[in-house]
Amino acid sequence: MPEGVVTGIIFAVTPTVVVGLIFWFVMRAIMRADRTERSAYAKVEAEERARYEREHGRPAPAPGSAE
């Protein structure tokens, strides 16, 4: 293949690859942040449930119940 064709192919494919990589990094960051946030929330909720059980001597009510 002539050199101009190879250069054209590279210039044609590069933007797609770069946008794909940016999308992948952004989605990866979002997924990691969500996983970290859920883990932190679960830890705080477990601590609060344990505190409630210590103070009231009974299991904590289910989330969303009106007690």
Give a verbal description of the structure:
The chain is mainly alpha-helical. The protein is built from one helix and no strands. The longest helix is centred in the middle third of the chain and has 54 residues, at about 5-55. The radius of gyration is 26 Å and the shape is rod-shaped. The model has no long low-confidence stretch (mean pLDDT about 90). This is Lysyl-tRNA synthetase. Keywords: Membrane, Transmembrane, Transmembrane helix.
A few lines on this structure:
With 67 residues, the protein is mainly α. The chain contains one helix and no strands.
Q: Approximately how much helix is present in the residues? A: over 70%
Query: How far apart are the termini?
Result: 75 Å
How big a fraction of the residues is strand?
A: under 5%
Radius of gyration equals 26 Å
Reported for the largest beta sheet, the result is: none
- The strand count comes to 0
**How many distinct helices?**
1
Structure classification: mainly alpha
Mean pLDDT: 92
Q: Which outline best applies?
A: rod-shaped
Poorly predicted sequence stretches spanning 5 or more consecutive residues: none
Encode the helix/strand succession as letters. Answer: H
Quaternary assembly: single chain
List the helices and strands and how they pair.
Elements: H1 3-56
Short key terms for the protein model shown above:
67 residues, 1 helix, rod-shaped
